[in-house]
Amino acid sequence: MSVERHTAETPAGERELPLVLLLRPLFPRFHVALTHKFRFLKPWESQLPPDEFLAAHAGAVRALLCSGPTPVDAELLASLPRLELVVASSAGVNHIDVAACRRRGIAITNAGNAFTDDVADFAVALLIDVLRKISASDRAINALPDICNSYGVGHVANLDKLGGKRVGIIGLGSIGSAVARRLGAFGCTILYHSKRKKPSVSYKFFSNVTDLAAESDVLITTCALTDETHHIIDKEVMLALGKDGIIINVGRGALVDEKELVRCLMEGEIGGAGLDVFKNEPVVPQELFHMDNVVLTHHQAVFTPESFDGLLEVVMGNLEAFFSNKPLLTPISE
Amino acid sequence: MESLGVLLTYPMDSYLEEELGKRCELFRLWENPPEKRGEFLRANAASIRAVVGNTAVGADAETIDALPALEIVASFSVGLDKVDLAKCRERGIRVTNTPDVLTDDVADLAIGLAIATMRLIRAADRYVRSGAWKAKGDYKLSSKFSGKAVGIIGLGRIGLAIAKRAEAFGCPISYFSRSEKPQTSYRYYSSVVDLAANCHVLIVACALTEETHHIVDREVIDALGPNGVLVNIGRGPHVDEPELVSALLEGRLGGAGLDVFELEPHVPEQLFGLENVVLVPHVGSSTWETCKAMADLVLGNLEAHVTNKPLLTPVL
């Protein structure tokens, strides 16, 4: 019987629990639920620098719980010779070197459908807010309390109707489909771009994003961030979308050429934007702060108790399945 | 209709005003200070055969009494709480409104307000614009909208349009109405308090009448509770506003998304800056397309009246 030294507390009963490497602390509600079932290796609690710690203690680690967007790069993977599973706590896995994992036969799981409803709700709400200037109107009332029902529509200018808008969804996965279902009920026409056409949907498919933009009034990005989708909304797409067009980004900041987006908004080349994500969070281009045709939120589309509970269930389920040699719940597709 | 004298009560829409100015003999009520309005009406009473009013200034008993030649009130609104219908009925004055063309926009705003309130979007936007977002990973949980029980007061055109949208979010729908609507499968409650006790989001979408004044009172607000959200896209007087304000300040109500207020243009300043409250200035139907459609309906009704054709959207 070997006795392994860990910096985590290991009362006798816990030595039977499977070992999982963390890179940063868990959300408290996650920690409470998961420490009953797993033993955590916590490099940040050690005096040793991370690479030395891993060299000393992580040789036996088969599972890594990547809580938050901490990068899982090739270097880290190389220091974990027995790693077989990376459990991500997000839908997106752009912070993980997927190719390196694939080469090593390391499985990756993500949040599955835990976030679908909340992200879809958020995308719809951002769109209505931009078109109907909800946040901007609230700001206007705060500044000029008697503005309510004051003369003319122009007191909060250019309110735009949602019904009848052509909405181009970039990425028709579970989140994109959920957005489509919701906006259909508002009388929007749904168009989409995806890696491959989906024969089971009746929405019009575009293999080219610029063509999609040319026929859309709104673009919503709900796709994964990969090398192929980096800046999938670029200058060409924005100009094709046009000066009344609205961009809603609930995916990842880098899906949109942010510098170009700011320029287009400043010059009136597109009509507005609702953004939950940015290229270099928490940095948000200050030029956007005085615009009334823009809504800015701080990467919070998934921050509801239900999404967190759903995520916890998926994370726990994947770890349990792995350690009992059962099929993983939410492995990412190839 | 050049000979039609039209009293426009309020500068509600520039396209409407322009068209009325071109096509009719237009009298602009608001250009006269309040104390001179009676005089203005008397001076032009012989010419004024039509009144075009809105949610701010309609055609009340005093106005109607001052206009013996009045034949038609064409309201730039679907709600008729600012038109003295009894008086119009008594005098045989025709009344038209603007139904249907604004249904979608008002329903869209109701859902937009609900989600903006529950997901703290306005508060987040304020936070980001203040430059306060310094550390990634700041998080605060907000309330999920999808799947939450939605209760609708008034299942007319707008109420039904709200229900249809909320259903796409998986929200179970229940309602209060003067009478049950057997043609829908939504759950009916014969009391607003029961409706409020059994839903998470309560949306006011009924007409304002004497019966529905303060239909959302303290009892209803308490039943909706500290996790409940009120959305009002109806009329300010539907809600007991001082009760609403104290409930929000004391945390007895979870949140509110409001497009209308009891004493417009006054908006209770104690609500400013509350993260769970979203306030918009009576913009339910204020999109360019819908305002034009409403204006065209008003013009079309007046045109039909002067040419003795059936009115497009008569109420009386």
UniProtKB/TrEMBL annotation, chain A:
Annotated D-isomer specific 2-hydroxyacid dehydrogenase catalytic domain residues: 47-331
Positions of the D-isomer specific 2-hydroxyacid dehydrogenase NAD-binding domain: 125-301
Keyword tags: NAD, NADP, Oxidoreductase
GO cellular component, one term: cytosol
Entries under InterPro entries matching the protein: D-isomer_2-hydroxyacid_DH (IPR050223), D-isomer_2_OHA_DH_cat_dom (IPR006139), D-isomer_DH_CS1 (IPR029752), D-isomer_DH_NAD-bd (IPR006140), NAD(P)-bd_dom_sf (IPR036291)
A molecular-function term among this protein's GO annotations: hydroxypyruvate reductase [NAD(P)H] activity
Family membership noted in the UniProt record: Belongs to the D-isomer specific 2-hydroxyacid dehydrogenase family.
Protein's UniProt name: Glyoxylate/hydroxypyruvate reductase HPR3
Species in which this protein is naturally found: Cocos nucifera (Coconut palm)
Automatic annotation (TrEMBL), chain B:
Any single Pfam family the record assigns to this protein: 2-Hacid_dh
A Gene Ontology term for the protein's cellular component: cytosol
Source taxon at top rank: Eukaryota
D-isomer specific 2-hydroxyacid dehydrogenase NAD-binding domain sequence ranges: 111-284
Record key words, sorted: NAD, NADP, Oxidoreductase
Limits of the D-isomer specific 2-hydroxyacid dehydrogenase catalytic domain: 11-315
GO molecular function terms attached to this record: glyoxylate reductase (NADPH) activity; hydroxypyruvate reductase [NAD(P)H] activity; NAD binding
Membership in a protein family: Belongs to the D-isomer specific 2-hydroxyacid dehydrogenase family.
Name of the protein this chain belongs to: Hydroxyphenylpyruvate reductase-like
Taxonomy of the source species: Eukaryota, Viridiplantae, Streptophyta, Embryophyta, Tracheophyta
